[in-house]
Amino acid sequence: MAFRSDPSVEAFPPDGLVEQLRQGKAALHQRHANLPLPEKVRLVMELQRIVLPLIARQRPLRSWERPWEIEP
Amino acid sequence: MPFVDTLRSLNTMKAEGVIEEYAIAGAMAIVFWAEPVPTFDLDVLVRLPQQGGDLVRLEGIYRWAMARGYAAQDEHILVEGLPTQFLPSPDSLAREAVSSAAEVDYQGVAVRVVRPEYLIALYLQPTARTVKRRERAAMLLELPSLNRALVDEILSRHGLSF
Question: Is A44 part of the contact surface with chain B (CB cutoff 8 Å)?
């Protein structure tokens, strides 16, 4: 079924919404940047577990590409 | 094994003269200044003690590591279980980055970390200019505390650009 836009419906986001979303994203990045260092290391380890399967799908993993088994 | 023990080991290497100076670089340096990013190793820029000849040797580091029971795994040494890559400073920019590194406290241990202004420059070097590294330079540029004038000065002095 083809989508046909209704000319009576506004096709663009309301004024300020995009900027609001950008600021929200920037604030999220800043919150992560302001976390205590051990928490950031813990998040690095969490990210390792998330991205490792994605990397493995694209190419063979290198010997050191494994989740760290350390305490943050 | 706590991450802080890896950091302690870097300070021990310096205290024992295995390296003259060091600074954490790469993605883990970003973690110190900005948000967590995925990475699987710890890059450490090092200034080595004076050696004869033109060839830089990491033998001293590998001997020290072996004596402490740290296994070598390809180009990494597992320092307290963490894959760590020791990078002799290859050029004047890297040497400056090491010398001007900031001292940051991690759970009571002082550790030297390349400043974000120098991280940006290192990521923009022609030999290192991958898409991922340009993205990381771009992320660091957004840091509220970044000294933009210093970034511009470093880039200009080393013939680098965005």
Answer: yes
pLDDT digits (tens, 9 = 90+) for B93-121: 999 999 999 999 999 999 999 999 999 99
Q: Does A25 touch chain B (CB under 8 A)?
A: no
Question: What does the pLDDT look like over A18-68, one tens digit per residue?
Answer: 889 989 988 998 999 999 999 999 999 999 999 999 999 999 999 999 999
- ipTM of this predicted structure: 0.90
Q: Is A49 on the interface with B (CB under 8 A)?
A: no
Paired tokens of A39: 């928490």
Cβ-contact B128, B134 below 8 angstroms:
no
Cβ distance A70 to B33 less than 8 Å, yes or no, reads no
In angstroms, rounded to a whole number, what is the distance separating the alpha carbons of residues B59 and B9?
Answer: 17
Q: Across the interface, do A70 and B80 touch by the CB < 8 Å criterion?
A: yes
Report whether B58 contacts B87 (CB < 8 A): no
Taking alpha carbons only, the member of B110, B115, B104 closest to residue B143 is B115
